[in-house]
Amino acid sequence: MHGGPVPFARRVAVWDAALTAVRAYLRAAGMLEVSTPIRVAAPAIEPYIDPIAAPPGYLATSPELAMKRLLARGSGPIFQLSHVFRQAERGDRHSEEFHLLEWYRLGGELAEVEADVEAVVAAVFAAVGAEPPTRWLRVDFFSLFERTSGVALRGDEDDEALRSVVGPALRAMVWDGRPGPLTSPDAEIRSLAAWTALFSAWSDLHLDPWLSRQVGVGVHLGEFPAALAALAQRSQKDGRAVAHRVESHVAGVELANGYLELRDPAEQRRRFAAVNALRGALGQAVLPLDEDFLRELGGLPLTTGMALGLDRLIMLACGCTRLDDISLALGAP
Amino acid sequence: MDVSELRKNAKLQMDGHPFVVTDFQFVKPGKGQGLYKCKLKNMITGATIDRTWRSGERLEAANVESRRMQFLFAGGGSFTFMDSENYEQVELSADLVGDDKNFLLEQLEVEVLFYNNRPVGVTLPSHIVMKIVEAEPGVKGDSANNPTKMATLESGYRLQVPLFVKEGERVKIDTRTGDYIERVNG
Q1: What domains appear along chain A, each with residue ranges and CATH number?
Q2: Least C-beta-crowded within 10 Å: which of A18, A32, A44, A294?
Q3: DSSP characters for A115-143?
Q4: pTM of the full predicted structure?
């Protein structure tokens, strides 16, 4: 383990070893490798992910919609290692362009793709000669939220209800009086904005400090509030409105995001429209809907999918803290 | 400017003051809102504050520039500087110059900070050399428990210097702390 930038000669070897290990694992698990276009007509619509325009379309922010169309046409289990682009995400652990490893398994068990994450992490750590996390913990959002903030959530509260139940620190971070979608006349926009902002504030105030104490332990954070379902299925479970979504973290770094994939085109259209309305209220570009994807979504078999940031995984395996320390996107010589 | 344009050394305007970003961290839960965690320094008072912005917020860029100028003279509660390139003269009030007045010698080259085209502060070179105009004589044998003595610089500023420093000698001063650094020969 070392802290600084990985020397260039080793960087090339590290990437080769990591790419080989990842492909070997996913192929052995019965998935076929695919490669879908980087430029797409319409990206997946998320509140805080901005695509980079590449007229007449966009650079893909993830290969999700294209891969689901392959699945809907009967591809069977597939994986892809793609270059994806997210505008204005720059920091030690963010880059506007990065490598997203995305894979889909047939069947309805999120635990299967969680196990894949553990195996992919172990394979990449081993490929660079590092010790992977000794064990993995699975914790659901609702219990962890309650444990860290003292508040029990149901998952489908509206913004008013949320505002009245969360503690003063979170309330001050989310409802800070600044103009924006939280003051929108549209109740659906307010609620989606409140949940999204609450999750971000809680991540900063409670989740990140908690994760940083899980030394040597990987964490799957599952069972999200229904309001944060994104492209995942929702259901009622133990009196809670749950989204079947999981985030995997290693060493305090968010590494992967998985869904039990939504297969209902009408529901998917409603969610895209709601997020677009929120984007509009935030002053962000309203994005076109991928009509081809919506047309084919009804044919998607029962599927779980996972997307993992490969650059971050290699960074962690090398004991580094900055993507620049391992990147092959070299700066000036 | 959009908050996503924040960088280290970006200059912003808040509550009528210019600030410079001294430290900058972008954090973002994958599906959540990005946070821009910044440390900022008030370019006039030097005070440091922490601020966090969320993605999508708008900021006001500060119209600040730094110009190389020469100190000409003081008088009537103000200090006059001249642009070394176009000979334009500007006046700064004594409260804007603050304790830096202790190290302003005629013809000293300084950086004058302009905010909205008004001069708001001076940045001195970090080290300057000045003459001692008055110093107590060093007392022999006293160096063990009183190794320094008071002395006065040509600007009138008084500071502690080692016993061996004499009147008429030149010394190097750290303008940020006001402390003696070393005697300058020749």
Answers
A1: 8-325 (3.30.930.10)
A2: A32
A3: HHHHHHHHHHHHHTT-PPPSEEEEEEHHH
A4: 0.81
Look at the alpha carbons of A320, A321, A327, A333 in this order and tell me if their dihedral is positive or negative: negative
Indicate yes or no: CB of B30 within 8 angstroms of CB of A254: yes
Question: How do residues A63-114 score in pLDDT, each as one tens digit?
Answer: 999 999 999 999 999 999 999 999 988 889 999 999 999 999 999 999 999 9
Q: How many CA atoms lie within 13 A of B19 on its CB side?
A: 23
Cα(A293)–Cα(A56) distance, integer angstroms: 17
Chain B residues lying within 8 Å of A93, measured CB to CB:
27
**What is the amino acid identity at position A186?**
D
- Give the closest-approach CA distance of B37 to chain A in angstroms: 11
Residue % of chain B over a pLDDT of 90: 44
Residue whose entry in the numeric block shows the structure tokens 């920091």: A91
Give strand pairing partners of B90: B81
* Nearest-angstrom CA–CA distance, A3 and A16: 21
CA distance A258 to A246: 5
Which long-range contacts (C-beta less than 8 Å, at least 24 apart) are formed by B51-54? B51/B14, B53/B3, B53/B6, B54/A197, B54/A200, B54/B3
User: Which tokens sit at A159?
Assistant: 């913004």
The one-letter amino acid at A147: R
- Please give the interface size between A and B, counted as residue pairs whose CB atoms are below 8 Å apart: 61
Question: Which CA distances in Å does A202 have to A28, A223, A228?
Answer: 38, 16, 14
